[in-house]
Amino acid sequence: MTSKTDSTSNSSPNAETAIEVSGLGFSWDPVQAPLSFPDMTLKRGDHLFLHGPSGSGKSTLLSLLAGMLRPNTGSVRVLGTDIHRLGAGARDQFRADHMGVIFQQFNLVPYLNTRANVTLPCRLSELRKQRAEPGAPEEAERLLAALSIPEDHWQRKVTRLSIGQQQRIAAARALIGAPGLILADEPTSALDTDNRDRFLELLLHLAHRHNTSVLFVSHDQSLARHFGNHLELRGDRT
């Protein structure tokens, strides 16, 4: 990972690059100066730990990278595609095909059971369905078992599970179908120390297995040791 704050990158945009950000700025309020984000490049398969104080724009940056927000200035390329040049529908499909997003609030579907929540990306994306090994139900069960969700919970509605279990189900949903990029917003906040470290090691192991890039946001800087790349946001405004 490179940024203007640590080194200069001469790489051209291509599918070997997971994220490229240039001149990015965003403001929630038109009368307020926009947040300014550092230029950065994250190579395919690399993992980045993103930290910074509250209000520095961590979750906003993830929403810009996911194409859920449009920037005021600058460009975002994800896996070689300038996502903000896509129309709304194409942007949503690109996210479904190529990104796994772990939200702070999980965004699980309350009327679906555990396994159905995990396989949901494969119903929204034919590409994710094709990449699921050996198939979506089987990969969902393998991920749930790896994340210590008991088999007798797989048919339960997610609203009947603990917050920590829901968080791990959201991670399994993000991992299924080998997306090229995972964006994780405080994904260990509901886990105790032992489960947190085990979860993170498994997440990065599975991501490495599929050459998936990970951008991981957390206030907990003790987790930084798991990552080769680090970036701090300071909430700079232009």
What does the secondary structure layout of this molecule look like, with pairings?
Blueprint (H helix, E strand, L loop, with lengths): L1 E2 L13 E10 L8 E2 L3 E4 L3 E5 L6 H8 L7 E6 L2 E2 L5 H11 E4 L11 H11 L1 H6 L4 H11 L16 H13 L5 E5 L7 H17 L3 E5 L11 E4 L6
Parallel strand pairs: 5-10, 5-11, 8-9, 9-10
Antiparallel strand pairs: 1-4, 2-3, 2-4, 2-6, 6-7
Describe this structure in words.
- By secondary structure, the protein is of the alpha/beta class.
- It has one domain (about 1-230): P-loop containing nucleotide triphosphate hydrolases (Rossmann fold, 3-Layer(aba) Sandwich), CATH 3.40.50.
- It has seven helices and eleven strands.
- It has helices at about 60-65, 90-100, 115-125, 125-130, 135-145, 165-175, 195-210, and strands at about 1-5, 15-25, 35, 40-45, 45-50, 75-80, 80, 100, 180-185, 215, 230.
- Strands 1, 2, 3, 4, 6 and 7 form a six-stranded antiparallel sheet that branches.
- Helix 3 (about 115-125) runs parallel beside helix 6.
Structural class: alpha/beta
What is the CATH level 1 assignment? Alpha Beta
The number of domains: 1
Q: In angstroms, what is the radius of gyration?
A: 17 Å
Indicate the low-confidence ranges by residue numbers. Answer: 4-14
Overall form: globular
Average pLDDT level: 88
Structure summary, number of beta strands: 11
Order of helices and strands: EEEEEHEEHEHHHHEHEE
Please bin the fraction of helical residues. 25-40%
- Which architecture per CATH? 3-Layer(aba) Sandwich
Q: Classify the oligomer.
A: single chain
Strand content: 15-25%
